Amino acid sequence: MQITLTLDQIRTYAASYTYAEDDELVTRMAVAVERGHMTRRDLEAVAEWKWRGGRTRQLCTQNTEVEVEEITAVSFAAVSERLRIGALLALRGVQWPMASVILHFAFPKHYPILDVRAMNTVGGSAPYNFDKWVEYVDLCRETASKYGVDLRTLDKALWSYDKAAP
């Protein structure tokens, strides 16, 4: 995997990204982190943001309030990267892409979103696993640091670049 976009391209593609629901999710997840866990409604909101189809959202409703609170509390408190993302995978309806959305909006300075479009841009592919996740996270952190942009800006650019590709 590699990111070949220049700083100017990152800025241009990030600026072309439009997704109005971002602000609502940023606020919701900041509250969840302050609380120390997500609620079931928080999880459903993430599913609505990530997946327009109903299957994943329906699976998320099968988690009990207690399960969501307990599992996300473990994730949010974890020091280990493996436990932080791995705990989230225990939730019904949560696979690597959605777990990465949760971490991205909960800890925006630390995690990118693992998405098929972003992976296309960096030359990665599914299926996802922990090693691929760590490689992608490290690549995004290094690139964001190199160019002095935040991970949200880089994430938007990677997604938009693939969407604009012919």
Task: Give a structural overview.
- There is one protein chain.
- The protein is globular and about 45 Å long.
- Helix content is 67%, strand content 0%.
- The chain is built from ten helices and no strands.
- The protein is mainly alpha-helical and 166 residues long.
- The chain has helices spanning 7-15, 22-35, 40-50, 54-60, 65-77, 81-88, 96-106, 116-122, 130-147, 151-164.
List keywords for this structure.
single chain, mainly alpha
Short recap of the structure:
The chain is 67% helix and 0% strand. The chain is mainly alpha-helical and 166 residues long.
SSE arrangement, N to C = HHHHHHHHHH
What structural class is derived from the secondary structure elements? mainly alpha
Rg on CA atoms, Å: 15 Å
- Low-pLDDT regions: none
